[in-house]
Amino acid sequence: MFDVGCGVGLFLDRFDSALWQKYGVDISDYATEQARARGITVKDYDAGYDYPEESFDMITFRGTIQHLDTPFAVLKQCATLLKKSGLMVFLSTPNANSIYYKLFGTLPFLNPELNFFIPSAATLGNALNNLGLQVEEVRYPYLETPYARPLRDHLYFLLRCAGLRVKFPFWRNMMEVYAVKS
């Protein structure tokens, strides 16, 4: 498994080392050191994607695609690293097609200075299809998250529409995309 934006390795650390070979890439030297201390293979950032073609069964992007300054180049590189029938997974991914984003031009967890590309299921799906991957499922896990409080969130939505600057989770703000390489 290869995790793009692996951070300090907490996500990969949850996978059983006896069952998974864990690889990651991160721009932060501190995060890279911490991930390596957890037994995750992380190359220096400049060589972070230097692996043979079709090296990985799964590649994950967990809240990272929006932070990449060349997201399509990274997707293209990752598509070559993914084995045939391999899975590319996008978790905690912002959704530009959410009502919140359409109305307010942002999402509560976004920091405009750190974001380059805010995808929708359609734009991400189109890019993946062009790279030889087939989107199998798109999920919007709002209700399954610990952040969802629908009554409060709907009240905050109305207050935000009235001009009050509040941040809150909402329907379809985040998405998960699962794609398989043909």
Give structural notes.
With 182 residues, the chain is α/β, with parallel strands linked by helices. It has a domain at 51-146 and 172-181: 3-Layer(aba) Sandwich (Rossmann fold), CATH 3.40.50.150. The chain has 6 helices and 7 strands; from the N terminus they run E-H-E-H-E-E-H-E-H-H-E-H-E. It has helices at 10-13, 29-37, 71-81, 99-104, 121-130, 150-161; strands spanning 2-4, 23-25, 41-42, 56-62, 82-94, 133-139, 174-181. The protein has a 7-stranded mixed sheet, sandwiched between helices. Helix 1 links the parallel strand 1 (2-4) and strand 2. The longest helix has 12 residues, at 150-161. The model has no long low-confidence stretch (mean pLDDT 96).
Summarize, please.
This protein is α/β, with parallel strands linked by helices and 182 residues long. It is 29% helix and 24% strand. It contains six helices and seven strands.
For the biggest sheet, the summary is: 7 strands, mixed
Principal-axes geometry comes out as: globular
C-alpha Rg (nearest Å): 17 Å
* Helix/strand/pairing category: alpha/beta
